[in-house]
Request: fold
Amino acid sequence: MNEITPSLESFIARLPKVELHLHLEGSLQPDTLRELSRRRGVLKKGIELWVRRRGRQSYRYSDFQDFLVAFGLVTKLLEIPADYALATTRLVEWLREQNVKYAEVIFAAGVVLWKKQSMEGVFEAVAAAAEEARERLGVRVNWIFDAVRHFGVEHVREVMKWAARFRSRGVVAFGIGGDEARGPAELFPEIYRQARDLGLHLTAHAGETVGPESIRRAVELLGAERIGHGLTAARDPSVMALLRERGVPLEVCLSSNVSTRVLARLEDHPLSLFLASGVTITLNSDDPAMFGTSLEREMALAAQTFGLTQDQLRGLMENAVRAAFLPDDDKAILLWDLRAGGGA
Reply:
């Protein structure tokens, strides 16, 4: 593994950034978890234990299902709209510290429904907090509504309808996450067609825990415009060719895939193969608080582990701008900012 030089560290810090695969609920840092509890005058049992356990485990889980359970526990701490607003504010403040100019944040709308909370109340609070933070900090956030694919067709359809309803509040896309094996893409083509007709962009987590056919089906059956993770594409040259031909980017999340033990080591990630084969990739932190990472750290890991240069790191950020669900004029401004920032 290469050393991170002070000059590279400084470059990463200065470079304007864009992130496309970032879960709001997975961004809850320990201090935010404590803050959520203290607002109600109590420190919830288990928070300190949960935080200490994550540290002892070096933010690694026994497997992907263990991570899903942990994610569910964290989301239960978000009980009222004001909790979601606080989480949003703290996330945007943290993005500002990393010089992130634009982010598309995944909102677990499916989990809000599962908890039987008011979607309207929760998301209005989230959207208002994001708008206030943008005014104060200059960080723009748009939203991707995420359904839990293994909760079934009607659940996914309901999330999609809420996503369409909130397009005027910054929701740009709809997607599915969760257990790929229990919620295969074949269940959802009609819902994705309706989402596209309603003006939503389309994403899907795919090829994270199952084989490359999951990616093929997400692209061919669902029309996914971006793929979350897409690790197993590396096993099938025809899937790699499909991604290249259709210009479908992969949202790469290095630490995430090691933390959930989908990969044994960072070095096992096919990032270098993706780059060499011409598949477009972006770099992302996924659930940063749950994996002990950040976008800046993911960039440093990419440089350390795979020998990426400053130009290549800047190129990954340019990929993110081009893959963002934004008007071309907004992309042009971000690209100009990116090329002017960071120095040589």
